[in-house]
Amino acid sequence: MSKLSRFIREKVIKHYRIKGKNNRIFLKENGHLKPLTGRLKGLDIEIVGNDNKIIIEKPTRFDDTSIRLTGSNALFEIKKTKYEILHTFFAIGSKGARVFIDEDFSCAGAKFYLGGGDFSSLTIGKDCMFSDNIIIMNSDSHAVLDNKTRKIINNDTINMTIGNHVWLGRRVTVLKRAKIPSNTIVGLNSFVIGQFNKENTVIAGNPAKVVKEEIDWQR
Ligand SMILES: CC(C)(COP(=O)(O)OP(=O)(O)OC[C@H]1O[C@@H](n2cnc3c(N)ncnc32)[C@H](O)[C@@H]1OP(=O)(O)O)[C@@H](O)C(=O)NCCC(=O)NCCS
Fold first, then answer.
1. Is residue 34 within 6 Å of ligand 1 at its C-beta?
2. Is the CB of 11 under 6 A from ligand 1?
3. What is the CATH number of the domain that holds 80?
4. Partner of 216 at 20 to 30 A CA spacing, among 10, 98, 130, 204?
């Protein structure tokens, strides 16, 4: 390891809890990547594993937010935003996980539990607005077994997608395999379980169903 990379690594470790090899955290600004050496205001990071990468594009506005990576070979990337990301916890455990959050994401409080099979992913489009008490889970956290064969039946690779300009109302839960298309509003207290394809709708209820069509929304 070169003197410079040892210096950067020691600086990062001082500010964040990082255990394992080849874990890298980058800041992106004006298209350029540079290793993070200080602490980003409002953001905690914990990595336990190897070969994980986090890329955070500036400007950011975190408060009481943490990213916890416990697998290996994961890539977590969040693009610049003019809005606040508050009281949010990302727990990412699967091997080769891919998390991508596009520009202008805002969140008033969420827990992301991203496990699932190897190379599971979560993609969130541009200009999404998540309210508070949101839960996003792309795995069940514990094994479900077929009782006869004793094989685990719930460790598939899960690719969860949330389109551009999606508003999740307060206390929304999004479960594995869900797909939410662009320009959707998800009503307060709803459980999104299935896949939705039609844009510009309100979906709501448990399980969520389309309750209104041809809508749009603004902040
Ligand atoms: C989703 C929402 C914005 C839709 O508002 P709207 O377009 O005015 O919708 P409507 O009140 O016309 O409701 C349309 C239908 O969906 C149903 N519906 C709306 N929200 C629902 C919900 N959260 N759960 C179950 N059904 C719901 C209504 O009962 C109505 O059913 P009907 O057609 O059988 O009468 C609103 O219902 C909502 O959930 N607001 C809270 C948003 C929030 O969490 N804000 C916090 C700050 S981000």
1. no
2. no
3. 2.160.10.10
4. 98
* Distance in Å, CA 130 to ligand 1 centroid: 15
pLDDT (tens digit per residue) in 126-181: 999 999 999 999 888 899 999 999 999 998 899 999 999 999 999 999 999 899 99
CA distance 29 to 79: 10
The answer to whether the predicted template modeling score (pTM) of the entire model surpasses 0.85 is yes
Tokens 């389309």 belong to 210
How many domains are there within the chain? 1
**pLDDT at residue number 216:** 98
Strand-pairing partners, residue 12, are: none
55: containing domain: 3-213
| Residue at 126 is within a domain | yes
